[in-house]
Amino acid sequence: MAVNHLQDYYANVIDSVGDGVVVIAEEGGITLINPAAEELVGVSRRQAMGLHFTSLFRGEDLLLEMIEKTTRTGMTISDHENIVLKKTGHPIPVGATTSPLLMANGERIGTILLLRDLTNIRDLEEAVRHADRLSSLGALAAGLAHEIKNPLGGIKGAAQLLAMELPEGSEQRDYLRVVLKEVQRVNRIVEELLELAAPRKLELAPVNLHKILGDIIVLQKRSVDDREITFQQQFDPSIPPILADEALLTQLFLNLIKNGVEAVGDTGQVRVSSRVLADYSMTQKGERRSRMVAIEVSDDGPGIGKEQLEHLFTPFYTTKSKGTGLGLAICQKIVAEHRGMIKVESEPGRGTTFTVMLPLIQ
Ligand SMILES: Nc1ncnc2c1ncn2[C@@H]1O[C@H](COP(=O)(O)OP(=O)(O)OP(=O)(O)O)[C@@H](O)[C@H]1O
Ligand SMILES: [Mg+2]
Fold first, then answer.
1. Looking at the predicted structure, is the pLDDT value of residue 290 above 80?
2. Which of 3, 123, 140, 216 has the highest local Cβ count within 10 Å?
3. Which of 257, 258, 261, 328 to mutate to test the pocket of ligand 1 (most atoms within 8 A of CB)?
4. CA 264–ligand 2 middle distance (angstroms)
């Protein structure tokens, strides 16, 4: 290969790497930065080239220390815990490694900095912690639910008998109707809870996500006829059918969209969109990497405060008088069963976005 071709070849290799690569010359100037690093650091190649590394990474003290030390001593240093890049406006947790750039004869001519975006790994870790909490809580709750179901049946039966004893149209009958309605409500909560705790087998088949989402939106539109709520949908037509349990996915998105509708109140907008996460891959338990699809359900309701955010997926957490607080706990279970992830972002006063990520091939 001619020298030029060889250079192009190596440049392409480095540009194609998913991790950020930055090369710093002996005297501290940036001599190479690949697209992944441009994105993480929040600068363009044009801006970065020739810049001294202390200005490129101003404020990122840990990173500066690592580069300085490797440049000075030739040591390789890694940190996968403590570094958070802040340049792009939103903090990105990264793993960083600095190593010396060596010539064939061993002479040191600079420092290579590798940056790996840990955002999704952090999300995953959080999901795992949460699943642990949920499973112990779930076992406890399921035991309790069983215990509640029997006496509830007794109350219902007795109330029905009593109602038959009373004359039609009497006030006491109305009271009993309230009793029966409330018993029905407790029963529904108990059943949802049992379902939440029970392991189950998924009925997997190719499902058309957009059809599910479209159907739910049509139904919701009808049920909010009297309110000024607009629905917006923005689907990526390239998303193929995914292998999933249709009934469960319907329940998942219905819960999310209903929450959005309930959040906006009398006027507002609920937006549902889908896209393929091109570079996104995830491994769990050593399974093969696969591409993911992201479905976002956003609303412009009141949003959720920071302290509330961490309780959202906990069973029975609710701020609604008629809510069970099981909706999102069920959503999280369904997403986990499909080996996906769910996350929520919210800005009080502006609205809330739930993002569900599901593997494209299962
Ligand atoms: N889009 C949203 N905007 C604002 N707050 C939300 C949103 N979605 C959920 N929440 C908050 O999270 C809580 C829990 O939601 P979840 O769906 O689990 O239960 P719920 O909606 O209260 O009850 P249920 O789903 O049984 O009707 C809600 O009570 C609400 O405070
Ligand atoms: Mg709900």
1. no
2. 216
3. 328
4. 13
